[in-house]
Amino acid sequence: MSALSALPFLKPVHLRPPRGSAGGQRRHTLPASEFRCLSPEDAVSVFEIEREAFISVSGDCPLHLDEIRHFLNLCPELSLGWFEEGRLVAFIIGSLWDQERLSQAALSLHKPQGSAVHIHVLAVHRTVRQQGKGSILMWRYLQHLRCLPAARRALLMCEPFLVPFYQKCGFQALGPCQVAVGDLAFVEMQHAVRGHAFMRRNSGC
């Protein structure tokens, strides 16, 4: 995935009004590209993308549908979805964690008093892969975290072949992760999140 510089925002696409609308005068638009926090109503779309992305590779998903709903109910502000013309094309889901390193409990818990954001999953729809969207979304997500007072760092676990991708996103490897899923072993990675006061002056948060 390519490094990111500028974001590909386009002009909104105009949609034809439904038949029978008042004179057909009113036009509705959907933004060509939009980033927003996810809600529980997005859970099915999230799971469909995740299932296709992960099951073919590892045979399982980082989060199942009930777990997605769980985190989107508890901490929707720690998620971010990329929508194109109203359709979800990529997403990240996170939760707060209160220890220095990830443990098995981090896979299912949200610790509201924590200062580390555990990034559970990043996935991109199969029709828009190989376009740099994963890198762009991660950059936007890290900018979003800098606007949240509680967030001090971001943690994630990934398979070794994904380490170079996350290094390009600014993450540093901490070494082998304590968490194992079946036969899979993971590398734990960390990204520092700057202080809230600094970012309020510099990013309009």
UniProtKB/TrEMBL annotation:
One cellular-component annotation, GO: cytoplasm
What does it catalyze?
a 2-arylethylamine + acetyl-CoA = an N-acetyl-2-arylethylamine + CoA + H(+)
Q: What is its EC number?
A: 2.3.1.87
In the record, the note on similarity to other proteins reads: Belongs to the acetyltransferase family. AANAT subfamily.
User: One matching Pfam family, short form?
Assistant: Acetyltransf_1
PANTHER family the record matches = SEROTONIN N-ACETYLTRANSFERASE
Q: Which residues form the N-acetyltransferase domain?
A: 33-194
Main enzyme class: transferase
Q: Which InterPro entries match?
A: Acyl_CoA_acyltransferase, GNAT_dom, SNAT-like
Point out the gene that encodes the protein: Aanat
Q: Report the locations given in the UniProt record.
A: Cytoplasm
* Keywords assigned: Acyltransferase, Biological rhythms, Cytoplasm, Melatonin biosynthesis, Phosphoprotein, Transferase
Metabolic or biological pathway: Aromatic compound metabolism; melatonin biosynthesis; melatonin from serotonin: step 1/2
Molecular functions per Gene Ontology: aralkylamine N-acetyltransferase activity
Q: Name one GO biological process term.
A: response to light stimulus
- Asked if the Swiss-Prot or TrEMBL record annotates the protein with the keyword Nucleus, the reply is no
- Please state what the protein is called: Serotonin N-acetyltransferase
Query: PROSITE patterns per the record?
Result: GNAT
Coiled-coil residue spans:
none
